[in-house]
Design brief:
The complex is a heterotrimer of chains A (164), B (804) and C (265). Chain B has 20 helices and 28 strands. In chain B, strand 20, helix 15 and strand 21 form a beta-alpha-beta unit. A 5-stranded antiparallel beta sheet of chain C has the order 4-5-10-6-7. In chain C, strand 8 and strand 9 form a beta hairpin. The chains are: A alpha+beta (164), B alpha+beta (804), C alpha+beta (265). Chains in contact: A-B, A-C, B-C. The interface between A and C is medium-sized, with 30 and 28 residues. Bound molecules: flavin-adenine dinucleotide and FE2/S2 (inorganic) cluster (2 copies). One FE2/S2 (inorganic) cluster (FES) binds next to loops of chain A.
């Protein structure tokens, strides 16, 4: 067992984990943050995407111990404390970018990173940028619409987007 | 977009409004509750040891070392299951062969006894304090296997001397079934001016809902009650199948909960071994047991879809009128019969072979075959995509052979609206449909006339452009129970709904259908809000728990709204009828004088009225209430059994471009015009269509479940090899619908939209691919049209590619 | 995953000490290959040694006119680096085409080349650009580094520290991704290095290789047309359900032309 200390959604936490414990297991099993999902075992589906120090990563492909000292943001940490949705979350709702909701947390976390790391997004960049996130329900059509709108909203509501 | 502004919603949350989803907030903030998100006090974890072989005899299983491993609570094998008289998993549909004999139904034990018949077959369960400990211990279970030869495809399995999957299934045949009039069809072919023939394979798919299956079993010693949380599309069906057939637990002692479910597409309809194992074993060890599939396990344990090998012939007269259709299909059942498997290539497939056409004579023969592969069952569309693919591919080829425009040939053969209701030669009665209208609208949207110019422009860039379409029809809203029963269903296929008005005017609706992406919590609430004239916020939809919902058959076959919604509608009728009586009493008027409109009961011609909330209050505080005539309360339940299937239909058109150097197919344009009857929430409907289309595109271009024919190993057992459509594989779509032909026999006029995209999608894309390659003399390509296959076909083409 | 002990050394000497001191130690860099492998229980290391905190292994710098990239530099860092964009922009593009955004945010250059997956992208870059691999013990020319399928010239306790790329002339990379995994079914990198043309092919064979006929043809005429009619022998190329050997041979020719077009454009 190793001790890991990290910040998750702004709160400092310390837990004892095995070397083999994955970050996603730390989040789900030790911290009860079940919004981050697991959809595959080959690091391809993106259901598990969270932000580590502001960058999107697959939490199923990172050891919990590797997150020691880092800041992790999960889907639970995206909306404002009063429940106001992050502009990207709001855009997914507005444009029906989710159906069963299983891919959604990872999809939204990837989309937020995508929006932040691109000055300009168009349909092609969004589709390519979501390469690491598989959705079986939506056919991506509305996800693409949502991400474009969400990115636009993040630009026009920077304060809220920065709350993340 | 609706083209019928007359149907504009009465209010912002009523029927026809694109109400934003009420389920979204929890999903978007990570607060959904999927099965794996649930943890029970004192819970243990199960790991299923699965067969690494497609076919092997088990000489013995030694669990001693595993039992000693750290954290291990118990290890069980098929012997333990048998000792406790646990039965095999039942099959819910009985098919009879041509000769009247019942299908061969081999036992399907939750844990095998002495033989495994597919890679992934359940051999033992290891229960430990943690999942990793269970997995560690699983490696210590010693299974003594004798590997046996395996067979993976239906044509091979039917050959003399093929390895047998089950001793009782001679020649690996499950049934040999037929439908239609053979003599009439033979006669039609005898007088045909032209016959188009086609051999095709409908490729096996893995459904791949993004949430892997999971189950938690719990036994309460104090009460003797069992609870099962499971990733299911139909908790009541699981309660029935597992309780009554497998474990012998009566309904009142078994609660099945299907919480938030991350997609199903059919794969979560069936009763699976793991559900029975965790429920049974939770009593044995006296602790809750959780099992969660890893994706690699899903690939070898979720029921697969499709897998047909078909020969078809279409007879036409000199004018291109279809005279007859002859079909022979081999349907791969896999190693066992999954819950509804036998019905898919029969009553959900052959009955749809008329398509949208007036073909007067049809004869279909279907052989269902056992192989050493994962069981096959319904996957989005289930039988109907296979039928659509066959019809639309052969119609397309006939048009090309006869030199008739593909749209013209279809027009000549469409069943006109004037012929409705229409009895097909394959046992269905279509109630309505305006097929040509959908076609025209779709042709307009894609600018069909402009295609030759676009093709020429693509050619100048070295690309091959093709256009293809599919005019599909499906039988949905499954089903009238008496019809299904006559055809072999071992269950009813109605739906239940309960509408409970609370004293202060809010409403809870209990539905037996289940939402795992379909948005019931929103669309069903729209129905209620619209009918009662109350704010949507005051309506709560409850589903997925056998202890809350009276009964249910679940969600599949695009039936939720058509059947489940109709049950709610009937229950609402009962509420209004009762409320009317109460209102009449309260308003001191005759019941016949009371009108109910926009949430108010009014004495006709007066301004005396009561809101439905007032009436509800009085129903629960019956101070001024007709107690001599009525019981207090306002809570009504209804079962709805449909009179007929519903028949969603439409036309999809795709334009593709092929890079001849690499064989890569890109979809440039895709339009769909659908007739779903009345539309409750256009946003949700369009979303369903998008998702279905991409599953159709996936089948056509990417997805293929491949077994090694020698060893029976699954070669596409992860996303490294099973090609899931991703965002950059597909375009945006143009989706429209029309509402001019509402379903004639259910109270809502709805037909169902869940499967349409997937039903037409693969045929549409393949017709476009073949069209793009037609100049090279290529007449057919089996799915998926991967870059490799397309490139190979171009290399082997009879007409060489024009020099650059 | 089997249980193991995790270490996070902060210096290279500590790393080497751990690697040679432990019974069956395994290095982890980005973990994008190692973790999936461990999850499938295909490896059972006693110890896992994380390079993440070893500062000297990380970073991108210009040196002697060329480019030096530390072993633990992530794909996303290479893709986003101004220095790389200035010196070898196509290398940034290549890095930007590896996996997906999340993989690029973790996966490293060192991890990729040490793993030497036959369908990885970087091997084409290293061989095509005539790079040199620096280890804690020596320097190895790229062509000698990649020795076989998932095999490299590294000794058991040898650690890649950096890769040095000379500044090339024109460079083009064209990748044909596996439709499912998105790894390179075939990737061809064409480059002018020290006055000579190099053509490196990944994905097609068991290990990255050069295509001498194409190099020759392009030396006299650096255009896609120069490759017309040239083919590689399908014998010995990889074959799987996604791509036969013949198809891969075709893709080598097609991707080579597209790489030339990119380089020329
Ligand atoms: C979904 C997905 C898609 C991918 N797509 C692509 C793709 O398209 N193209 C492509 O090229 N790759 C692809 N990859 C692989 C990716 O690039 C990996 O990051 C890379 O192969 C390994 O790098 P890593 O830093 O993650 O190494 P790790 O996984 O940490 O290590 C890999 C191996 O290298 C060893 N190692 C690591 N660093 C060193 C070192 N400095 N010295 C000695 N040994 C070392 C480790 O011990 C291990 O054996 C993909 C991976 C995933 C998960
Ligand atoms: S769970 Fe699929 S990528 Fe992490
Ligand atoms: S919404 Fe269901 S997988 Fe994306």
């Amino acid at each position: 067992m190793t001790s890991v200390s990290l910040k998750v959604n702004g709160k400092s936490v310390t837990r004892e984990v095995e070397g083999r414990t994955l970050l996603v297991q730390l989040l789900r099993d030790h911290l009860g943050l079940t919004g981050t999902h697991v959809g595959c075992d080959t690091s391809q589906c993106g259901a598990c995407v969270v932000h580590v120090d502001g960058e999107s990563i697959k939490s199923c492909t990172m050891l919990a111990v590797q997150a020691n000292g880092l800041e992790v943001t999960t889907i639970e940490g995206l909306a404002a404390a009063d429940g106001t949705l992050h502009p990207m979350q709001a855009a997914f709702r507005e444009h029906h970018g989710l159906q069963c909701g299983y891919c959604t947390p990872g999809m939204v976390m990837s989309a937020v990173d995508l929006a932040k790391s691109h000055e300009h997004l168009d349909e092609k960049t969004v589709r390519e940028g979501l390469e690491g996130n598989i959705c079986r329900c939506t056919g991506y059509h509305n996800i693409v619409k949502a991400v474009l709108a969400g990115a636009e909203a993040m630009r026009s509501q920077p304060a809220q987007a920065a709350a993340e | 977009m609706s083209n019928s502004p007359a149907n504009a919603p009465v209010n912002a949350t009523g029927i026809g409004a694109s109400v934003k989803r009420r389920e979204d907030f929890r999903f978007l903030t990570g607060q959904g509750t999927y099965t794996d998100d649930i943890n029970r006090p004192n819970q243990t974890h199960a790991y299923i040891l699965r067969s690494p072989y497609a076919h092997a005899r088990i000489n013995g299983i030694d669990t001693a070392a595993a039992l000693e491993a750290p954290g291990v609570v118990a290890v069980f094998t098929g012997k333990d299951i048998a000792a406790d008289k646990v039965n095999g998993l039942p099959c819910g549909w009985l098919i009879h062969s041509k000769d009247g004999s019942p299908m061969v139904e081999p036992p399907h034990p939750p844990l095998v006894l002495d033989k495994v018949v597919h890679v992934g077959d359940q051999v033992a369960v290891i229960i430990a304090e943690t999942c990793e400990q269970a997995k560690d211990a699983a490696e210590l279970v010693m299974v003594d296997y004798d590997e046996l030869p395996a067979v993976t495809t239906s044509p091979e399995a039917l050959k003399d001397g093929a390895p047998l999957v089950h001793d009782q299934a001679t020649g690996n045949l499950c049934y040999d079934w037929h439908l239609g009039d053979k003599a009439a069809t033979d006669a039609a072919f005898a007088k045909a001016a032209h016959v188009t023939k086609l051999d095709l394979i409908n490729n096996r798919l893995v459904p791949n809902a993004m949430e892997p299956r999971a189950a938690i079993g719990e036994f309460d010693r104090a009460t003797g009650d069992y609870t099962l949380w499971t990733t299911s599309q139909n908790p009541h069906v699981i309660r029935l199948l597992m309780g009554a057939f497998v474990l012998g637990i009566p309904e009142h002692k078994l609660r099945v909960i299907a919480p938030d479910v991350g997609g199903g597409f059919g794969s979560k309809i069936y009763h699976y071994a793991e559900e029975a194992i965790v429920t049974w074993a939770s009593r044995k060890i006296g602790r809750p047991i959780k099992w969660v599939a890893e994706r690699s396990e899903s690939f070898v344990s979720d029921a697969h879809g499709r897998d047909h090998v078909t020969h078809a012939e279409l007879a036409l007269d000199a004018d291109g009128k279809f005279l007859g259709l002859r079909v022979q299909t081999l349907a791969n059942m896999g190693a066992y019969l999954s819950t509804f498997a036998p019905s898919i290539p029969t009553y959900l497939y052959a009955t749809l072979l008329a398509g949208q056409y007036t073909t007067p004579a049809i004869y279909a023969e279907v052989k269902a075959v056992f192989t050493h592969t994962v069981p096959v069952d319904a996957y989005r569309g289930a039988g109907r995509p296979e039928a659509c693919y066959l019809i639309e591919r052969i119609v397309e080829n006939a048009a090309r052979e006869l030199g008739i425009d593909k749209t013209e040939l279809r027009r000549r053969n469409f069943i006109p609206p004037s012929a409705m209701p229409y009895d097909t030669p394959v046992a269905l009665q279509y109630d309505c449909g305006m097929f040509e209208k959908c076609l025209d609208q779709a042709l307009n949207l894609i600018d069909y006339k402009g295609f030759p110019a676009r093709k020429a422009e693509a050619k100048a860039r070295g690309k091959l452009r093709g256009i293809g379409l599919a005019s599909y029809i499906e039988a949905c809203g499954i089903a009238p129970s008496n019809v299904a029963g006559a055809l072999g269903a071992r269950a009813g296929l109605y739906e239940s709904g309960e509408v409970r008005f609370h004293p202060t005017g809010s409403v809870t609706v209990f539905t037996g259908s289940h939402s795992h992406g379909q948005s019931h919590e929103t669309t069903f609430a729209q129905l209620v809000s619209d009918r009662f004239g109350i704010p949507i916020e005051n309506v709560e939809i409850v589903h997925g728990d056998t202890s809350k919902v009276p009964f249910g058959m679940g969600t599949y076959g695009s039936r939720s709204l058509a059947v489940g919604g109709s049950a709610i509608s009937k229950a609402m009728d009962k509420v209004v009828n009762k409320a009317k009586k109460i209102a009449a009493h309260m308003l001191e008027a005759a019941e016949t004088d009371i009108v109910f409109e926009q949430g108010k009961f009014t004495v006709a011609g007066t301004d005396r009225s009561l809101t439905i909330g007032d009436v509800a209050l009085s129903a629960y505080v019956p101070h001024n209430f007709p107690l001599d005539e009525l019981e207090p309360g306002l809570d009504e339940q209804a079962f709805y059994d449909p009179k007929n299937f519903t028949y969603p239909n439409g036309t999809q058109i795709a334009e593709v471009e092929i890079d001849p150097e690499t064989g890569v197919v890109r979809i440039e344009k895709f339009v769909a015009v659908d007739d779903f009857g009345r539309v409750i929430n256009p946003m949700v409907v369009e979303g369903q269509v998008h998702g279905g289309i991409v599953q159709g595109i996936g089948q056509a271009l990417m997805e293929n479940c491949v077994y090694d024919p020698q060893t029976g190993q699954l070669l596409t057992g992860s996303y490294m090899d099973y090609c899931m459509p991703r965002a950059d594989d597909v375009p945006s779509f143009i989706v429209q619908y029309h509402e001019e032909a509402p379903c004639t026999h259910n109270p809502l006029g709805v037909k169902g939209c869940g499967e349409a995209g997937a039903i037409g999608g693969s045929a549409t894309v393949m017709n476009a691919v073949v069209d793009a390659l037609a100049d090279l003399g290529i007449k057919h390509l089996d799915m998926p049209a991967t870059p490799l296959r397309v490139w190979r076909a171009i290399q082997d083409a009879s007409v060489p590619l024009a020099a650059e | 995953m089997y249980a193991f002990e995790y270490h996070r050394p902060t210096s290279l000497s500590e790393v080497t000490g751990l690697v040679s001191g432990k019974e069956d130690a395994k290095i982890i860099a980005g973990g994008q290959t190692l973790i999936p492998t461990l999850k499938q229980r295909l490896a059972q290391p006693s110890d896992v040694i994380d390079l993440g905190a070893v500062a000297e292994l990380h970073g991108i710098r210009e040196e002697g006119g060329g480019l030096v990239i530390g072993a633990t530099t992530k794909h996303a860092e290479v893709a986003g680096s101004d220095i790389v964009r200035r010196l070898i922009p196509e290398l940034a593009e290549l890095a930007n085409g590896i996996g997906d955004a999340q993989v690029r945010n973790r996966g490293t250059l060192g991890g990729s080349i040490c793993n030497n997956d036959p369908s990885a992208d970087y091997p084409a870059a290293l061989v095509g650009l005539n790079a040199t691999v620096h280890t804690n013990k020596r320097t190895i020319p790229a062509e000698e580094f990649f020795t076989g399928m998932f095999e490299t010239a590294l000794e058991l306790d040898e650690i890649v520290t950096a890769v040095a790329f000379p500044k090339p002339g024109r460079v083009g990379y064209a990748k044909f991704p596996n439709p499912a995994s998105r790894y390179a079914t075939v990737g061809v990198l064409v480059a002018e290095v020290d006055g000579a043309v190099r053509v490196a092919v990944t994905g097609a064979g068991p290990v990255v290789f050069r295509w001498p006929e194409a190099e020759q043809a392009l030396s006299s005429n650096f255009s896609a047309a120069a490759l017309n009619g040239l083919t590689v022998d399908a014998d010995g190329l990889n074959a799987d359900i996604h791509a036969s050997a013949e198809y891969r041979a075709n893709l080598v020719a097609v991707m080579a032309k597209r790489a030339v077009v990119r380089a020329a454009g």
